[in-house]
Amino acid sequence: MCEALFSERAIFLYLRLRLNIDKAYQQIMSSLEESGYRTAIEECDKISDHPMGRILKSGLLKAGRRDKEIEQAMQESIMREMPQLKVRVNYLSMFANIATLLGLLGTIVGLITAFEGVSGAAASAKQEILASGISVAMFTTAFGLIVSIPCLMGFYLLNNRGDYLMDQFEEKAMGLFNTLSNKKRMEEPK
């Protein structure tokens, strides 16, 4: 289960959202400066399957309006995109915690079984019963950790990738906002 979840999220975050964000942003900004809003929107449409294209387009569509409207449009777009980056990633953390707790539960059950067996056994069999119970306890702990450790590693890897992408989107949206705001001020009659 963890492997399938990790694979799906990794493919989405690392392959499907693979884009040279800085290069695409620079292309959009160059189009805006050289050819205007329509060309910049067309550049956004070229990457419309990527969240950054949709976020920046939402700001460009409000160009010329009040700064607050531009900012709100991009913030709303960011808020729509954020859940797609984080969806199901927290399940990996949950699986890791559950696996650890199940391993601990198995340890306790194994030790209880071992001590119960020793209490009613003959002196010659006590050592074997105790060793068998402790063995079960250690195996359940090991299996819990074998599941838990990769799940936690996957969680942190995917969570950090999602955070990185969100930071990039917010940074580029702020850059576009500042450019649109300055451009509007320069175009206003004095």
Give the topology:
Blueprint: H1 2-16, H2 21-35, H3 37-46, H4 51-60, H5 67-86, H6 89-119, H7 123-187
What class would the helix/strand composition place it in? mainly alpha
Q: List the total number of helices.
A: 7
- Indicate the overall shape: rod-shaped
Computed over alpha carbons, the radius of gyration is: 28 Å
Helix content: over 70%
The tally of structural domains comes to 2
Average residue-wise pLDDT: 92
Can you describe what's shown?
The chain is mostly helical and 190 residues long. The chain folds into 2 domains: 15-87 and 164-187, no CATH class; 89-153. The chain has helices at 2-16, 21-35, 37-46, 51-60, 67-86, 89-119, 123-187. Helix 1 runs parallel beside helix 7 (123-187) and helix 3 packs antiparallel against helix 4 (51-60). The protein is rod-shaped. The mean pLDDT is 92.
Features:
190 residues; mainly alpha; 2 domains; 7 helices; 87% helix; rod-shaped
Give a quick summary of the entry.
By secondary structure, this protein is mainly alpha-helical. The chain has helices spanning 2-16, 21-35, 37-46, 51-60, 67-86, 89-119, 123-187.
